[in-house]
Task: structure prediction
Amino acid sequence: MQETSAIEELASDASSRKRFLKAVGGTGAAGMLAAFISACGSKKEEATPGGSNPNTGAGTGTDQYGKGDVGILRYAITLEFIESDFYKAALASGNLSGRAATIAKRFAAEEQKHVQALSAAISAAGAQLPAKVSPKFNTGSQQAILQQGLALEGLGAAALLGQVDRIQDKKTLALAIRMHSVEGRHTAAFASILGQDPAPEGAFAQPAFASDVLNQLHSLVAV
Result:
């Protein structure tokens, strides 16, 4: 029997949804939760004939990090480790100035807070942190740094969105929602500096399965 995800429970229970939104905090969370619920419903409609749905642990690729929410948390922190290391390398390069340097410092602090929050959640679940990888970043110029930041943050946002309808625990879901919104703002900021469309996907952001995210990471930062 398939377990009900936190998103599905919130979609079907108005009182539970109200309590959740009060805990997460505010109107912005309500809009994002509504989008997540809508995306969850769309994925169900897109299930393949015969009841097979690609949105499973194996299909999304997080089982290599652990089962269920623990696997999702360990997958998420793997991405956050890379983003945090990216900002450290970018700032250490000395190739950022002006607004680019200012937002890189701010985003570095925010990504470190993501790492701390995920570390706490993983420890609370009785699991170990995954091993850190040693990515290689292109920090040879401000333009290269901004382009890589745009790609990494966009990938991080899509990665979280790809997992929200699999999360069972509401605290984990709340963390994912909060992090996703920040990753999206980081992406828009980089796009703005580069003179690109800050919302290229239109009204609805696109999710990405973990297997696709990890493949893109290998080509992007040679992890």
Remarks:
- The chain has nine helices and no strands.
- Residues 42-59 have pLDDT under 50 and may be disordered.
- The two ends are 37 Å apart (CA to CA).
- Residues 6-221 form a domain with the Ferritin fold (CATH 1.20.1260.10).
